[in-house]
Amino acid sequence: MVIRMQPKRAMFKPAPYDTRRRARRMPSWLILLLLGVLAGGSGMLVLQTSYGPKHLTSADAQKLTEELNSATLERQRLQTKLDEQKRLLDATRDDSEKVNRALKDELSTTLALVTPLREQLNLFVQTLPYDARFGPIGVSTATFNQDKTSPKLTYLLWLLQDKPDRPEFKGLLELSFEGTHKDGRTETVTLARTPVTFGHYLSITGQADLPAGFVARRANARLFDLDGKRQITWRVFPVVIK
Prior knowledge:
The protein has helices at about 30-50, 60-125; strands at about 135-145, 150-160, 170-180, 185-190, 195-200, 200-210, 215-225, 230-240. The chain has about 240 residues and is an alpha+beta fold. Strands 1, 2, 3, 4, 5, 6, 7 and 8 form an eight-stranded mixed beta sheet that branches. The longest helix has about 70 residues, at about 60-125. The termini are far apart.
């Protein structure tokens, strides 16, 4: 019996210091990362181009600078005008305060003069004659003067209540003048009624324009109620021709 021996196959054993390099592929995760970076950069570029702020050209920048300078000058002009108006307002306020102080001083001086005169006038009123025949309200005294060369007649009239604490009276005063013309005709000239209001007393001064050539001899003073229907009092005074 013959036994055949087959030769053994050589087995591969890697050498520990094999200098040959194997071919390596790029990892898939790195490829995906690079693709994501490229896509994000492209998208950002598209957004900046479409929706982001536009880059100014040199002409646009120059125009914008000129507009800014113009707005700055206008603001400075308005600020200067505002400051000027404020100075004028302050000066006007100072002048107004000076005028107010001057008026107050003048008023105080006038009151200091008027007060004693009012007291003297009250004493004078107490000496006026009073006619009680027609009630508590009457015509105390009056003077009527006419220049013989002029148709103008001046008068001074005092209306009086018998007591200083009586209620205020409101009524109508009527003046009429009896006289003659140059041709001898007689006439009574009646003036329009005037409203009067007074407490204890009232002095009335005035001037009447009579017809040309008319010479007044007598003056009639009538006092009516406010409706003009009821006569309150009546006095007759002579007219002095000067």
